[in-house]
Amino acid sequence: MARSKKKAAGIGAVGTCMAKFIHPRAPIKEALRKNYSKHRYENLLIVGKGTHRINKKDQIAYECRIPSIPDDNIVFKIVCSHFTVTQSPNEPFADERTSNTTTACTTNINDDRASTTNVSRNLPNSDNRAEDIARLREEGIEVDDEDVAPENITNEPTAVTGRWEKPRTCPRRADINVRNIEGSWKSKAWSTIKEMFRFAVFRMCMPEDFLKTVLIPETNKHLEGDKLTLSELYKWLGCRFFQACFVGVSSQTAWWSAKEIDKFEGAPFRLNDVMSWSRFNAIDKAIRYTNQPAPTDFEDKFHDVRQMIDAFNNHMAANYLPSWLSCLDESMNTWLNKYCPGFMVVPRKPHPYGNEYHTIADGDKGSPIMWRMKLQEGKDRPKKSDGSWAFPSPFEGHTKTAKLMLEMTEPIHGTGKVVSMDSGFCVSAGILAMHSVGVYGQALVKKRGRYWPKDVPGDYIDESFAQKELGD
User: For residue 107, what pLDDT is reported?
Assistant: First the structure.
């Protein structure tokens, strides 16, 4: 059912609000005592509206009288988002009158954004995952499994040349320009970061210039009520992160329920002290991640997030220097809708359905800071009408895996740093391509089916080590 439109407020309007959101709090607590945190006041009368200092910051609030506290010297303040109008005034406040701008704003809301419940799962969900994946493959869904990398498929036997010997020098360590340095932030030393709050460290990883110049202004164009600020954006994001720590909560509204917390149903915590439900839902519906117009000559299914991903990568490249050792791997962003852009199946993952991201993170000194990401677009990667890629890679001349390895390591090209990878990246063309741009790659050597990685004499290596003890 459609959510009813919030009534406008004005002098003479009557409404309701939870007691804990009314300021000053002292007379409220004195009047209610033990019922303070759960009591809801009815018949609150609005006598004005203005900016007031509430919770250590300036906020727009309604100025109200409470009939049950007949003290004419007290004008109570309630932040607008916490007040619900039940009886409209004769004349709404000027900034709350219905206008064409407001109408345009509300009609540009996607129904899925406004939904308060989980999406309907359209994935197969039998007890046999292999059968489910086979069915999705038949439907044309891309599956990233343990198949041999295309660069490693060959019927030519690997030639064995040279001889076994113990290496006496490491070409990397022999280079006087290469050192095993620790990762570091350009703006702050680790000794300073050690004393910082975790939230402050988190903000260092966020592209706040992008948030301030793109995300927040674009969101405010579609947001009802007060303008979104950076502080409030982080609160909204914190609510999202916190919700993601728990499973089994089917409705968003459960996190703001007035019911007592029940260990058998609903949400395990309440978020009313952080943000009101109406405000959270309004931001949910209005949030935007780009200020770029959608292309008209081709379809880009990733248009809404492409600018944001680029902003993160550019921010980390400009502000963080990875250590001498990093790890390149892939991660899943789970989806329950197989029609989402870039949807694929990665059977080896605990949650195999959704978007696959390749990510690279610092691997030294216990500082696993992710400094680059790439969304795997798969079959949905956009092309222009002439068949060329709409967003070509600077490394298009390389094979598929080698191109990915070069894209992910681009910020450290020419540094002599090391990147450790799993067997999926054990592609000689990629390792050599990285070496050619000044990055050393190391990957697990693993036989897939009847194939060893191309140019790796795996059987010969097995035979040579068969009779040796560990450490020989």
Answer: 40
